[in-house]
Amino acid sequence: MNHNHEPSEEEKDNWSQDPDNWIWGLFYYNPKDKRIFPPKRIKEMGWTVNFANPNSVFLCVIMILILMILCESVKR
Question: Where are the transmembrane segments (predicted)?
Fold first, then answer.
């Protein structure tokens, strides 16, 4: 049995729809899903962050820091 298989699109869609992968219905957390930005439950609403992926959390922290720096530079 191959444990390193790439999940199918159907399996990825099922992950996004599974309520057990959502904390308080707002935060997507699925360690099996390696995507940084998986689609939201309603795909037309865009993407969300997979908080189980350390790369996505790191990327979000970097984006927040950049926004904070930009806001501070605009105030001056």
Answer: 51-71
Reduced to 3 states (helix: H, G, I; strand: E, B; else coil), residue 27 is strand
Structure tokens at 59: 């990327």
Residue 56 · residue 49 · CB < 8 Å? yes
For residue 72 the two structure tokens come to 């501070």
Angle at 62 between CA 61 and CA 64, to 5 degrees: 65
53: its two tokens:
């992926």
Of 38, 31, 35, which is closest to residue 16 (Cα–Cα)? 38
Short-list 64, 65, 20, 25, CA closest to 42: 25
Tokens of 45: 């609403």
Tens of pLDDT, residues 5-36: 788 888 887 788 888 999 998 899 999 988 88
User: 47: which residues sit within 8 A by CB, 6+ positions away?
Assistant: 37, 38, 39, 40
